[in-house]
Amino acid sequence: MPVTAGYDVGGAHLKVARIEDGRVVAVRVIAMPLWRGLQALDAALADARALTSDARLHAATMTAELTEIFDSRAAGVTEVSSALERTHDSGLRIFMGLKGFGTAAQARENHVSVGSANFLATAQLIAQKQPRSLLIDMGSTTTDVVACDRPQGLSDAERLQTGELVYTGFTRTPVPSVTTRAALAGQWQTLARDAFATMADVRRVIGELPDHIDLHDTADGRGKSVAESLVRLSRGFGRDGEMRHLDVWRSAAACIREAQLRSVHDGALQVLSRPGPSIACVVVAGIGAVAGEDVARRLELPCRRFGDIVEANDSCRDDATAHAAAVAVGLLADAAG
């Protein structure tokens, strides 16, 4: 049975998909704090071998080249592709965006095409499966908003201009980078511009963050209970939050979440404002797919989850949605042979 493995190598997570006979049968995410050193990548790839050791093809895309341990994006692509090459000495294919797949050596020569191209793998697959779709893929750190049949920007710099990259995520984004004020007990209040809390804390206080979603340490290194998240969130308001006032704080957290959703909605409106073929559907992906669904409702467009438009076992459809780029790059490479 031919097996293909797809990898999305990020700066915080390694996402891995296993594909058998063109069907997604397993998807896994591994915490990988790459900012602590390249050993995190080597450890994550070793951990993934239980899922991928018998694969004939290993297809990878990346955003890890942005990590601050690298002096430049080119250096990042070189180091990450070399680590992949060490682990998979045969059958390795690295996604180079519009140039298709190449060897590790070719990837190092075309680092501009390789870096942060994971969104394009997802968009290309959706364009095949569900034409005239708008992708909204909210990950832990960023959100991609892409008209899949006609992506505009290719680099992060270009996509930040076009609205296709909204630098806000479901869990790891610090609260004051989402908004510098929020409503609390009937009054607007300016927030401290310090990384006391993240959007994971906001969503835990609201009660909408599943335990398995946030895999990294909190901003203060303490626990992930609602009470501990409330302490971090309230500190940004210059206060000490108490659980007996949880309903008040939930309203404040909802105000912050709304500011984040509006920024994604704004990106979508900018993308949709360009002349060209009309968009008929939104396809949502990422651990924040639920936020994408909210934006789709605001756009008054039909919505589908990424895991429902690919061939996948029912047991891993949700994970395929959450980690779409790993699935997409694997399926594209599998089809290419």
Strand order in space, largest sheet: 3-2-1-4-5-6
CATH class descriptor of the largest domain: Alpha Beta
Order of helices and strands: EEEHEHEEHHHEEHEEEHHHEHEHH
For the terminal residues, how far apart are their CA atoms? Answer: 14 Å
Using the CA coordinates, give the radius of gyration. 20 Å
Instruction: Please tell me the overall pLDDT.
Output: 96
Task: State which percent range the strand residues make up.
Answer: 15-25%
Which terms summarize this structure?
337 residues, alpha/beta, Nucleotidyltransferase, domain 5, 2 domains, six-stranded mixed sheet, 12 helices, 13 strands, 19% strand, globular
Walk me through the structure:
The chain is an alpha/beta fold and 337 residues long. It has two domains: 3-130 and 309-336, Nucleotidyltransferase, domain 5, CATH 3.30.420; 131-306, Nucleotidyltransferase, domain 5 (2-Layer Sandwich). Helices cover 39% and strands 19% of the residues. The protein is built from twelve helices and 13 strands. The protein has helices at residues 39-52, 73-87, 104-109, 111-114, 118-129, 156-162, 199-206, 226-235, 246-272, 289-299, 317-322, 324-336; strands at residues 3-9, 13-20, 23-31, 57-62, 92-95, 101-102, 133-138, 143-147, 165-166, 181-184, 187-190, 281-285, 303-305. The strands form three sheets. Strands 3-2-1-4-5-6 form a six-stranded mixed beta sheet. It has a five-stranded mixed beta sheet with strand order 9-8-7-12-13, with helices on both faces. A two-stranded antiparallel sheet has the order 10-11. The two termini are 14 Å apart. The mean pLDDT is 96.
